[in-house]
Design goal:
Blueprint: E1 2-11, E2 14-25, E3 30-34, H1 39-42, H2 44-54, E4 63-69, H3 81-93, E5 102-104, E6 107-108, E7 114-115, H4 120-129, E8 134-138, H5 142-145, E9 152-156, H6 159-166, E10 175-176, H7 201-213, E11 217-220, H8 227-233, H9 243-256, E12 271-272, H10 280-284, E13 285-286, E14 291-292, H11 294-297, E15 302-305, H12 313-317, H13 320-325, E16 327-332, E17 335-340, E18 344-349, H14 368-375, H15 380-384, E19 388-391, H16 397-400, H17 409-426, H18 440-446, H19 451-464, H20 468-484, H21 492-499
Parallel strand pairs: 3-4, 5-8, 8-9, 11-18, 11-19, 12-15, 15-18
Antiparallel strand pairs: 1-2, 2-4, 6-7, 9-10, 13-14, 16-17
Helix pairs in contact: 2-3, 7-17, 7-20, 19-21, 20-21
Length: about 500
């Protein structure tokens, strides 16, 4: 007695088809699971046995062999419970069922109920791409699968209900997915609005430029000057997620299991703020079965590193390649996986251990050796990948008590959105979306300047000892400033403003 059921495995952010084969032989009662299963898959035999019995069905006697093919791909997680249970039921009752156009996914509870299962969205996308029309999933995951148009979804409450459907006793009413044509991210509420941050106009302007061009930012200032608050306000001035970007972000969160059960689609750009004790694997991703890290969870959003020098040096160095490429590649003995990591880095730090170096009102208590050691915790190559270097001073009492309301995030966001639209039009024939993503060729093609501006740049490179990378990043910043000004060409004032945001090295 043999049966075969279609399922799917998630490898990185992609899916591969899995055939769950069940063969029932004579002999002593036993269950053997083969096909490189992890502990969660091996334990599924106990969940499946209890689920079948508690659903009022008889569990077959004899030796059961469960094969998850292809056998050279490692299988992990409890999502194979449902296809295994279906395979056992079909094999023991010799029922024929059309499996070619059906996919079964779900974790079983001991009483036969279907639990919430991670990764339903990428699995639904896989089904759509491979012409699989029928998707059998837990009812609780139906909103997530509905994001992919063109599928026939069978929402399952418990295993007994599925059995009645397979035996044609009681049909499960299918749900036809609608996709996200009516997607709208308007009306999102943000925790912090720029209108209620006192002072810091220079920093707000720099953050607007960073949001418009996708540039990385480092803020340096004494404790309590508002670095964290300004960073938290950054998502409120970023352009709204497009449907495509929302699906990209939601897919990552679905696989990790961080997608709220009542929120099938992520509308708001991510803001991730890992603690400085985080490991390199937690930040860039990894593990025996590699999973996305914080930089991938920040994809299309913000990665905020507070107290930058407190992060271990090796952790920060692991960010250098993702900052440059927008993707992180993780190599293991069994293969190489790539995760998207196109984020804006916002970092903050104090100027010294006590935080008051060069403060006009408070004396610094650090020795020169302490200051030098503290500042050397972050390497030059890492700092070179940051576009905007900002000094964030303490806010004066007069500004703190002022009744004046600053420019709101919504007003700033409209300017940023307009600049992003200009960039999308500019790069429509390229595979990039923002000025920060430009390579040297794009800089040469889209960042033309006159002789006077070129002379200013030459002097800046000589006096500020700028690297080649910093030189090209200046062009990118100036291009973004020009876009915010709705200027077709980069002007001298755009170059001079861009120079204000480079580090004083």
């Amino acid at each position: 007695m043999f049966a075969k059921v279609n399922s799917v495995a998630i490898i990185g952010l992609d899916c591969v088809p899995i055939e769950v084969e069940v063969d029932i032989l004579g002999g002593m009662p036993n269950i053997t699971t083969v096909g490189l299963p992890d502990a969660a898959v091996k334990e599924s035999k106990e969940r499946v046995r209890s689920a079948i019995k508690n659903s009022g069905l008889s569990f077959p006697r004899g030796h059961l062999t469960i094969n998850l093919a292809p056998a050279d791909i490692k299988k992990e997680g409890p999502s194979y419970d449902l296809p295994i249970a279906v395979g056992i039921f079909l094999a023991s009752n010799e029922i024929k069922f059309e499996i070619e156009s059906s996919l079964f996914i779900g974790e079983l509870a001991l009483d036969g109920r279907l639990r919430h299962t991670n990764g339903i969205l990428p699995m639904a996308i896989f089904a759509k791409q491979h012409g699989i029309k029928n998707l059998f999933i837990p009812r609780i995951n139906i909103k997530e699968a509905n994001l992919v148009k063109g599928l026939t979804i069978f929402p399952i409450e418990d295993f007994n209900q599925l059995v009645r459907h397979l035996t044609k006793e009681e049909e499960i009413i299918p749900f036809y997915s609608e996709g996200i044509e009516d997607f709208s991210s308007k009306g999102i509420e943000y925790e912090v609005d720029m209108a209620y941050i006192k002072g810091q106009d220079f920093v707000k302007r720099a953050l607007e430029i960073a949001a418009a061009g996708g540039h990385n930012v480092l803020m340096k200032g004494p404790p309590g000057s508002g670095k964290t608050l300004l960073s938290m306000a950054m998502p409120s001035i970023l352009p709204l997620l497009t449907p495509r970007e929302a699906l990209e972000v939601t897919k990552i969160y679905s696989i990790i299991g961080l997608l709220p059960s009542n929120q099938p689609l992520i509308f708001k750009r991510p803001f991730r703020s890992p603690h400085h004790s985080s490991s390199a694997a937690a930040l860039v991703g990894g593990g025996q079965f590699p999973k996305p890290g914080e930089i991938s969870l920040a994809h299309r959003g913000i990665l905020f590193l507070d107290e930058l020098p407190e992060f271990p040096r090796n952790v920060l160095e692991s960010l250098r390649q993702p900052l440059e490429d927008g993707v992180v590649t993780i190599s293991r003995a069994q293969g190489t996986l790539s995760f998207p990591s196109n984020f804006i880095l916002i970092a903050s730090q104090n100027p010294c251990p006590c935080g008051y170096q060069n403060d006009p009102k408070k004396n610094c208590t650090c020795s020169s050796i302490q200051i030098e050691r503290y500042q050397k915790k972050v390497s030059g190559p890492f700092l070179d990948r940051i576009d905007l270097h900002l000094e964030v001073p303490q806010v004066e009492f007069k500004e703190l008590t002022s009744e004046k309301v600053a420019e709101s995030s919504e007003v700033i966001r409209k300017r940023v959105q307009k600049a992003r639209e200009i960039q999308l039009q500019r790069f429509k024939k390229c595979k990039i979306f923002t000025n920060a993503e430009m390579k040297n060729k794009e800089v040469k093609d889209f960042c033309k300047i006159d002789e006077e501006s070129l002379e200013i740049l030459r002097l800046a490179v000589e006096r500020m000892h700028l690297s080649t990378r910093s030189f090209y990043r200046l062009f990118k910043i100036a291009r973004t400033i020009a876009d915010l000004s709705l200027s077709e060409n980069i002007q001298k004032n755009h170059i001079t403003e861009a120079l204000q945001y480079r580090g004083k090295s």
